Amino acid sequence: MDIRIALCDDEKHQRDYLVHLIKKWNPEAKIDCFESAEQYKMLRDEEAPHDILLLDIQMGGQDGVSLAKELRAAREDMIIIFITGVPDFVHEGYDVEALHYLMKPVDENKFFVTLVKAAQQAMKVEHPLLLQVDGETLKVQIKDILYIESFAHYLEIVLSSDTITVKMPAYRLEQELGAGFVRCHRSYLVGLKHISKITKTDIILDNGKAIPISRRLYTSVNAAFIDYIARF
Questions:
Q1: pLDDT of the residue at 48
Q2: What is the reported pLDDT for 1?
Q3: Cβ-count burial of 115 within 10 angstroms (0-12 exposed, 13-18 middle, 19+ buried)?
Q4: Predicted confidence (pLDDT) per residue in 105-134, tens digit
Q5: How many beta carbons lie within 10 A of that of residue 38, not counting itself?
Q6: DSSP symbols for the chain
Q7: So what's the pLDDT on residue 93?
Q8: Angle at alpha carbon of residue 43, lines to 38 and 46, rounded to 5°
Q9: CA atoms of 218 and 184, how far apart (whole Å)
Q10: Backbone phi, then psi, for 125, in 5-degree steps?
Q11: So what's the pLDDT on residue 157?
C-alpha cells in the first residue's frame, strides 16, 4: 500500500537512521521529517494526512507526549509510535492510544514488526472527505455517510445528522470513498457499516431508511455486506 510516514525527532542521526530502516522496509513509503513538534504542526499537510507518526518523546521545545495529546484532542486518528531513550514515559502512551513504544537504539527487527502492524491498522483508518460546496471546502467524516443519491449532475450525501448536496460525478466520489461502500442501484451508493438488513428488494439502514436494490446488483451487494461483516 502507499503509506505516508511522519518522523519527528530533534536528533539528525536518529532521523537518518530511521529513514534508512523505513526505506529498507518499504522503498515506496513517503517520509516527511520534522526537527520539532513546532515544525511538525507548522509544515504538516492537513489535506493529505500522514498514516503513521514516529514521535520522539524528549525533544527541545514541546515534548512528544504533549504533541500527541494535542493531536488526539483535535480528533486526528493517525497511528502514533513513540520512540525514545527513556523508559519512564511508557505509561503516557496509553493516554494517547499509541500503537507502540520503541526504545533507542531501535532494534531493526522490532521496528519492522511494529511498522507492519501499523500499516495493517492504517488500512482501516478513514481519512476525511473534502468536498467543495458553494465555494467552500467542507470536511466530512466518511464513517458518518449513510448513503449517496445521485440526481443528474448532483449528489445528495446523507449523513447521520445532515445532508450535503454537491455537484460532481458519482464515479469520482465512489473512487474516493473506497471499499466501505457498495452500489446497490444506479442512483444509490450505501455505506456498508450502516446496513442493518438486506431483503430481496431493499437495503434497510440502521436508521430504518429503506434503499432500493436492483435485481442485477443484489448478489454483489449481499456478498459485499457478508465480506464486510467478516472483516469487522
A1: 73
A2: 54
A3: buried
A4: 999 999 999 999 998 887 766 667 888 888
A5: 14
A6: ---EEEEE-S-HHHHHHHHHHHHHH-TT-EEEEESSHHHHHHH--TTS--SEEEEESS-SSS-HHHHHHHHHHTT---EEEEEES-GGGTTHHHHTT-SEEEESSPPHHHHHHHHHHHHHHHTTPPPPEEEEETTEEEEE-GGGEEEEEEETTEEEEEESS-EEEEES-HHHHHHHHGGGEEEEETTEEEEGGGEEEE-SSEEEETTS-EEE--TTTHHHHHHHHHHHHHH-
A7: 56
A8: 115
A9: 7
A10: -85, 130
A11: 95
What is the torsional sign of CA 35, 26, 29, 176? Answer: negative
Stretch 181-185: mean pLDDT: 93
CA–CA separation, 47 and 33 (whole Å): 17
Q: Could you give phi then psi for residue 29, rounded to 5 degrees? A: -65, 140
Residue 218 to residues 140, 160, 176, 177, Cα–Cα distance (Å): 28, 25, 23, 20
Residues in the chain: 232
Answer yes or no: is pLDDT of 223 > 80.
yes
Cell of 65: 507526549
pLDDT tens-digit readout, 51-78? 899 999 989 899 999 999 998 887 677 8
103, 86 in Cβ contact below 8 A? no
Query: Comparing 39 with 78, which gets the higher pLDDT?
Result: 39
Give the C-alpha separation, 78 to 56, whole Å.
15
Average pLDDT, integer, range 181-203: 93
Please choose, from the candidates 81, 80, 69, the residue with its C-alpha nearest in 3D space to the C-alpha of residue 106: 81
